[in-house]
Amino acid sequence: MRLIGLVSVLAALAIVGIAVSRQLQAVGRVPATATPAAPNVREASQQLQEQVRRDVTKALEQGARREEPAQ
After folding, report:
1. Integer Cα distance of 57 and 63 in angstroms
2. Angle at Cα 11 formed by Cα 8 and Cα 17, nearest 5°?
3. Model's pTM, two decimal places?
4. Whole-number Å distance between alpha carbons of 8 and 37
5. Cα(51)–Cα(8) distance, integer angstroms
6. The pLDDT value given to residue 29
7. What whole-number distance in Å separates Cα of residue 62 and Cα of residue 54?
8. Digit-coded pLDDT (tens) for 9-26
9. Among 44, 24, 25, which residue's Cα sits nearest to residue 35?
10. Burial code of 11-47, b = ≥16 C-beta within 10 A, e = fewer?
11. What's the confidence (pLDDT) of residue 23?
12. What are phi and psi of 38, to 5 degrees?
């Protein structure tokens, strides 16, 4: 009985691993940002906040475009 449980857990892990690898291939690699490294923690935090703000704005704009009714 333990063998069946072990085999089913290994099968589930294999399925999840395949799904994750396919998803990563579909999404592709995330490109590195073009911003230079910040010399201190405060500037790094501000850069990260600005990048997140830009990404959220971009995502909201894309969502708004999808929701527009077709004319």
Report:
1. 10
2. 145
3. 0.41
4. 46
5. 42
6. 58
7. 12
8. 999 999 999 998 888 887
9. 44
10. eeeeeeeeeeeeeeeeeeeeeeeeeeeeeeeeeeeee
11. 84
12. -80, 145
Residue 33 CB partners (closer than 8 Å, separation 6+): 51
pLDDT tens digits for range 28-68: 655 555 556 667 888 888 999 999 999 999 999 888 888 77
Tokens 């830009």 found at = 54
Question: Letter for the amino acid at 49?
Answer: Q
Q: Which residues contact 47 (CB under 8 A, 6 or more apart)?
A: 35, 38
Taking a C-beta distance cutoff of 8 angstroms, is the pair 32, 26 a contact?
Answer: no
Count of positions (residues) in the chain: 71
The amino acid that residue 52 corresponds to is: V
Lowest mean pLDDT across 1-5, 24-28, 67-71: 67-71
At 29, list the tokens.
């690699």
